[in-house]
Amino acid sequence: MPSLRSVCFNAYWAAWTALFLAPLLAFAASGAPARPIRAATRLWARGILFGLRGIVGLRYVEEGRERIPAEPCLIVANHQSAWETLAFLVLVPDVAIIAKRELVAIPVVGWFLRRSPMIIIDRANGTQALRTMIEESRAAVAAGRSVLIFPEGTRSAFGAPVQFKRGAELLYGKLGLPVLPVAVNSGLYWPSGSLSRPGTVVVSYLAPLAAGLSAAAFMEGTERAIDRELDRWRPTAAAA
Fold this sequence. Notes:
Radius of gyration: 18 Å
Distance between the termini: 19 Å
Strand order of the largest sheet: 1-7-6-2-5-3-4
Low-confidence stretches: none
């Protein structure tokens, strides 16, 4: 049975999201201006994080935030939960998040996501999806925005080793940007297919990597670095 907290949070999510229907109509009528839409999307995400904290008891802390480069970079993060997809809209303002097409099917929210920070790709399209990802990422960087990719492609179980798909390595080579690896332990508190529960998600920004490294050095500095960072919390997951 769903916990009372989860039921209340789901009701809050629906009510909070419904409030954005009026701004959606106003933005659509005014030509869908990008900057106000991005601001509204971040406000929506902040409201969801507020609900998680106040209703569920799910908080977050950041470690190493001073490592975020001042200039646009490629952010590479592991993916365990819906939490980080929402949270990065707040943690890194104006970041262009590479996301699956299924996200834009969410009522009201999907309209904002398609027109704000997200780079929406259809992974079933293979080569075309990679081309879209690279072209739209280059456009985001030209506009002064960082790009975020979850290179595992989908949410993974907490204890599973981090395994990147080819898209991250390809994007790194094409963009020529420094890389910021990020490890999150959100799967401990909001695993895929489960309800969220109280706790503190840790967002750990790791040492940046320079542009122009070999594929092997890129993998060593991102995939393995993130995996090693997650070892901090794997005993906690095993005990649970």
